[in-house]
Specification:
7 strands, Rossmann fold, single chain, 242 residues, globular
Length: 242
C-alpha cells in the first residue's frame, strides 16, 4: 500500500464520498481513505453494514464516518445528499463510485424490462445523478477527484451480460464526457477496472468459482487511491489492474 507523505496523512482534511461502501471494493476504499485522514461519507442501502464499517474505521483510528443509507435509484435523495454536504462542508474533494449490480445474465430478448431498467438505473443513471448533485461541490475543492469503477464487459461486449455491459459502457462514456467538460478546472475524472476480485457480484455471476483464488478487494485499493490524490493529473483515463 502507498504510504502517506511524511507524518501528514495524504488525505488529511479531504471529504470523500464513496458509494457501494457497505462491502467489497467500496468498503475497502472507504476504510483506506479514512485511515489516511479523509472524512468519509458512506453511501449504500444497508444501514447495519455501514455501521459495522464505521466501527472498523474508528477502531483503526479514523474519524467517525457520515452514513448515508439509501438506494441510489432514489434521485431526489442523491440531490439531498449534495445539499447536506454543501451545508456541512461547502465542498467535496473525492467521489469514488463503486456501487453496481449485476442484473440478468440472459439473452437480450429474454430480459424482463424491470430488471433492465434497474440495472441501468444503478450502474449508470445514479452516477449521472451523483455528478449532477456533486459537481458544484467538486468545483469548490482545490483538487476535486472523481473515480468510477467499471469492468471489462463494458469493452468486450460479452454475450449474455447485456444490462451490465451496456450500463458499464454508458458509465465509461459518462466519465469521459465529464472529464472533457472539466478539463480546464482543478477536477480530474478517471475510471478504474479492478478485474476479477472477491465480491458478491462476482459470486452471483460465477457461483461455482473458488473465490479464494481471486484478489482481495483491499489489494486493489492503491489503484483507486492513487487517482484520488490531489497530485494526480490524469484525466479521462482508464486504469486497469494487472
Amino acid at each position: 500500500m502507498t504510504a502517506s507523505t511524511g507524518t501528514v496523512p495524504r488525505f488529511a482534511g479531504r471529504v470523500a464520498v464513496v458509494t457501494g461502501a457497505s462491502r467489497g471494493l467500496g468498503a475497502a476504499v472507504a476504510h483506506r481513505l479514512a485511515a489516511e485522514g479523509a472524512q468519509v461519507v458512506l453511501v449504500a442501502r444497508t444501514q447495519g453494514a455501514l455501521e459495522q464499517l464505521d466501527d472498523a474505521i474508528q477502531a483503526a483510528g479514523g474519524a467517525r464516518a457520515i452514513l448515508a443509507p439509501f438506494d441510489l435509484t432514489d434521485g431526489p435523495q442523491i440531490d439531498r445528499l449534495g445539499l447536506a454536504l454543501y451545508e456541512r462542508f461547502g465542498r467535496v474533494d473525492i467521489l469514488v463510485a463503486a456501487a453496481a449490480m449485476l442484473g440478468s445474465l440472459s439473452p437480450l430478448g429474454h430480459i424482463d424490462p424491470p430488471d433492465w431498467e434497474k440495472t441501468i438505473a444503478v450502474n449508470l443513471t445514479a452516477n449521472w445523478r451523483l455528478l449532477r448533485s456533486l459537481d458544484p461541490l467538486l468545483r469548490r475543492s482545490d483538487a476535486g477527484r472523481a473515480v468510477f469503477v467499471t469492468a471489462a464487459q463494458a469493452r468486450d461486449a460479452t454475450a449474455y451480460w447485456g444490462p451490465y455491459a451496456v450500463s458499464k459502457a454508458g458509465l465509461e462514456a459518462l466519465a469521459r464526457v465529464y472529464a472533457a467538460e472539466i478539463a480546464h478546472t482543478p477536477i480530474r475524472v478517471n475510471l478504474v477496472d479492478p478485474g476479477p476480485f472477491r465480491s458478491r457480484l462476482r459470486a452471483q455471476a460465477f457461483p461455482g468459482e473458488d473465490q479464494g483464488v481471486l484478489p482481495d478487494p483491499v489489494s486493489l485499493t492503491d489503484l483507486v487511491l492513487d487517482l484520488a490524490t490531489p497530485q494526480c493529473q490524469r484525466n479521462g483515463e482508464l486504469a486497469v489492474a494487472r
